[in-house]
Amino acid sequence: MSEVLETLILGSGPAGYTAAIYAARANLNPVLLAGPQPGGQLTITNDVENYPGFPKGIMGPEMMEMFKEQAARFGTEVLEELGTEVDLKQRPFTVKTASDQTFRTKTLIISTGATALYLGLENEQKLQGRGVSACATCDGFFFKGKKVYVVGGGDSACEEATFLTKYASEVKMVVRRDELRASKIMQDRAKNHPKVDILWEQNVTDVFGVDDGKVTGLELTHSRTGEKQKVDADGLFLAIGHKPNTAMFEGMLDMDETGYIKTVPGRTATNIEGVFAAGDCQDSYYRQAVTAAGTGCMAAIEVEKFLEAQGH
User: Fold this and answer.
1) Bridge partners (DSSP) listed for residue 4
2) Residue 168's CB: how many other CB atoms inside 10 A?
3) Is the Cα dihedral 263, 241, 184, 176 positive or negative?
4) What are the b/e assignments for 64-76, b being 16+ CB within 10 Å?
5) How far is CA 71 from CA 10, 66, 75, 96, 301, in A?
6) Section 235-259 average pLDDT
7) Structure pTM?
8) Helix or strand (DSSP H, E) at 219
9) Across 231-260, average pLDDT
10) Which residues of 224-251 are buried (b: 16+ CB within 10 A; e: fewer)?
């Protein structure tokens, strides 16, 4: 592509689409590359009940379609493309895609999001969507009266376990240490709930049920002794964290030890002038749709001010 864009947006979750809406309304003619999961993590979320403006809740995929429609309405060009390579050494920046397209842009908004971490077990991958999940909110409904296990010891794990008690008959937390990392209030909720049982110093080392087409049991291994046991299970929920989708920018942008892009405090500007980051790729703390959308708005406004300062 010989044309130099005013701004290019990588990623199509709440941050990317909100950035697109604001950039388009500022007449910046944004191009948005939707990435490998158009709509981001909300497309695997069933009911979204905590986003303002939807008092009765809304399905995640439906919400993201509305975001996309609004961005397109103001002139955003949304492309089903995946950015695979970037050159940020000089402006205009260059972005290459999986289909061998090349884009040149004066500014770049990175909103590539994050991905839930899995244990890396072979059968775990085979049984994804068949009892293995990384989203209790999305899939808890399907485990009414069932026995489920939640892996993790942080806030997310306690929250997932507590949430699953709405549906499951039994919720077992598998914690590899002898204590929880979660905040005191989240620990208390999990520990004091009659349906939640915490299994200390245990690891899930296998998932059974491939031949049955759904999860039927787990192998647990003691962290210290190595003793193994097989347990019956109907579902396995992973709550061991997220990995930001930022590998493409390693060595170019400042990141923390986990890979989240560092931005100027209170803003979305990165260490490279003209490059901005929004949403879960730079937010390891809140990780909410509404906060991602907020940073998308911030990024677009910063882009507009940056281009004005550059005389564009």
Assistant:
1) 104
2) 25
3) negative
4) beebbeebbebeb
5) 14, 9, 7, 23, 15
6) 94
7) 0.78
8) strand 217-222
9) 95
10) eeeeeeebebbbbbbbbebebbbeebee
